[in-house]
Amino acid sequence: MLGYSFFAAARTFGLQYAQTAYHLPHTSATGMLGLLGIGALAGVWSGGKLGDRLPERGHLKGRVWVGTAFFWVTVFLFFFGFYFQILWLSIVLFIMSAFSLGVVNPPLDAARLDIVHPVLWGRAESVRTIFRNLGESLAPIGFGWLVGILGNGATGLRNGFLMMLIPLAIAGSLSLITIKTYLPDVAAATAYREKTMNREKQQNQ
Q1: What is d(CA 203, CA 137) in angstroms, rounded to the nearest whole number?
Q2: 3-state secondary structure string, 59-113?
Q3: Cα separation of 115 and 120, whole Å?
Q4: Residue 164 in contact with residue 6, Cβ under 8 Å?
Q5: Of 5, 91, 104, 139, which is most buried by a Cβ count within 10 Å?
Q6: pLDDT tens, residue by residue, 24-37
């Protein structure tokens, strides 16, 4: 949810930031955001492949580790992207940041399904979708309010984005807790799944 919220705020205010901070014309600023979008899509594809490859090679916590690590990578890359005011360097860091944030979601989404019984997948996805939509709808409003407090112009937008990195860091910290509970939760879900299947087989016999 926090990753989607950051993306929503970036989509809404990223164009304005690019124009005010780097004095780019509308066309160039739009192109810059397009590059970030391509980076994010590449990250989503890579995150899905990496999140599957690690468990295949015996790293059972690989999906959670990928999501956790790239949360923190995203925070650091975005921080330095906003810290440096050199256009070409910021663009490179922002593209890398978008890629990194895109990597986060697929392995964590897959890990979430690992610990939920298939019978409950529909309800689990409903809850996830509700929180995702809430995050995407409220993030621009909250970000605009935050910028209004921090100040107008490029400085206010930059400080607002830096403040938005705090929830991403919190998400990365919470993921560290998940690393400890992931395998026991997977084992519990697998045992319950096998118990349910055995019960169904006995009923069908």
Answers
A1: 46
A2: CCCHHHHHHHHHHHHHHHHHHHHHHCCCHHHHHHHHHHHHHHHHHHHHHHHHHHH
A3: 10
A4: yes
A5: 104
A6: 898 888 898 899 98
